[in-house]
Predict the structure.
Amino acid sequence: MIKIQNEFHPEIPLKIEEQWTSITKTYMKALKAEIIEKPDYTLYTTGLDNPIWNQVTLKSLNLERIGSHIEEIKSHFEQKGLQFTWFTGPKTESSVLNKHLEKHGLVEAYSMPGMSIDIAKIPDKPQPIHDFQVKPVLDDETLENYLGVMIECFSGTLRGMENKMPEIIRFTGLTEDSTSRHWVGYLNGEAVGSGAYVLDHGVAGIVNIGTCDAARRKGIGTEMTLLPLRDAKRRGYRVGVLHSSTVGKFVYDKIGFTEQCKIYAYRNPTQEQ
């Protein structure tokens, strides 16, 4: 895998979306989801009553067939009584694709800034935080603590997934040389922060950055973001990328991330809608 050396490389927006697609594929494999590969798209069906865990990813935008593809995908999930999520971005030509999705009745649920940073510019040493320490997730105890933070911080995303997350994280690897690594932060001995990376597509994808409510405004979220970046730097990576929430973008701006694109989430309306 060739590592991208410049955060303003023209392929960075594409890498941001590719990272998201890659993470989806890994998580769905860990969940033993039904995976249907078509020439132009892939369907992931877990059967969970949470649209984030029933997804479609587009491989290529075929304008002659996109309308029929959308109807096929809608029918697949509607027959199962499931709401699904379709993420779009620069690689899948969201400026064009989104209009087709809306024409066929899908609605935009939210969007996420796709951001990047030159890892060489981040501070090499952590900012001291009183009674705060970070441990890598390498065993059952640290995994349990890590998942406790994630479940508190990402309750909506993980709804219905609480008992399945240990399986997913173990699937991605719990060793120091895994391409996916996780860390848990402790304040006064209590697990309060989470952070991770996925090394793929030549960049370090920063994921699962969370801080429990009781530990906010202490710089913990910043350190849980910087630590994975430092480790990625140690392993030869130059560019970090992430998908930010609207609230989190302010923190990432301060760290030095630059917005490169938008990732959009579209869904089929529920009967209530």
Notes: Residues 122 and 260 are 18 Å apart (CA to CA). The chain has seven helices and eleven strands. The chain has a mean pLDDT of 92. Residues 12-113+263-267 form a domain with the Aminopeptidase fold (CATH 3.40.630.30).
